[in-house]
Every structure is written in structure tokens, then in C-alpha cells.
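C-alpha cells for chain A. Residues wanted.
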């Protein structure tokens, strides 16, 4: 009887753990609707580093990068400004010798701070 009681208690603990660890459909929909969006401000010379870092991001983090998110014919300045001020949750600046001299990186920082 004691063995059966311990087995039942162990099973109940496992069921409680399972219930806590399962994600409800509502939670999944909430997480999908709240994907974190990051704008990567960088010099074009830092593009290989930016690509590599982006490859390590989990699926719920979306990085905005010009080569993937700019469309042919779009107004370059307006598209980037909109991505920073309206779309991105965060701005990440890759600081290096080239980005410090970059006119675009400075403008992107100005837009983010405005």
C-alpha cells in the first residue's frame, strides 16, 4: 500500500509539473503577436558581424537589417526612419571606427533619440 501511495504522489507531482509547463494556445498567440523587433544600426563594413549575431537570435526576436527589409524603390531615409521610430522596440548600435564616421549611423541614433 505504501508503494502505491508513493507512486500516486509521484504521478500527481508529475501531472502538476506538466500542467505548469504546458503553454496554453492563448499564451502562444500572445507570444507570437509580441515578437521583439530590434533595429541594427551599423556600418556596412560591419555587415558580416551583424549577420552572424542575427543568426544567433531566438525566433521571437526579429532584427531589422537594410539588406533584408528595404524594398527596391522605397524611399531609403523614410523607410529607415519609420523602422526606428515606429517598428523597432530597441535600437542596437554596432560601434566601431567605421560606424563612428558613418553619416547614416549618426542619423539613425538621432531618429531614435528624437
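Reply:
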Amino acid at each position: 500500500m505504501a508503494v502505491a501511495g508513493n507512486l500516486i504522489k509521484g504521478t500527481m507531482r508529475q501531472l502538476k509539473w506538466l500542467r505548469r509547463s504546458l503553454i496554453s494556445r492563448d499564451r502562444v498567440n500572445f507570444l507570437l503577436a509580441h515578437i521583439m523587433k530590434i533595429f541594427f544600426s551599423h556600418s556596412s563594413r560591419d555587415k558580416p558581424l551583424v549577420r552572424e549575431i542575427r543568426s544567433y537570435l531566438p525566433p521571437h526576436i526579429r532584427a531589422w537589417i537594410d539588406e533584408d527589409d528595404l524594398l527596391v524603390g522605397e524611399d531609403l531615409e523614410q523607410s529607415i526612419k519609420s523602422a526606428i521610430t515606429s517598428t523597432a522596440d530597441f535600437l542596437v548600435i554596432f560601434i566601431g571606427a567605421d560606424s563612428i564616421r558613418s553619416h547614416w549611423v549618426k542619423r539613425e541614433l538621432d531618429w531614435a533619440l528624437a
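Helices lie at 2-21, 25-33, 47-55, 66-69, 76-87, 97-101, 103-113. DSSP finds seven helices and three strands in the chain.
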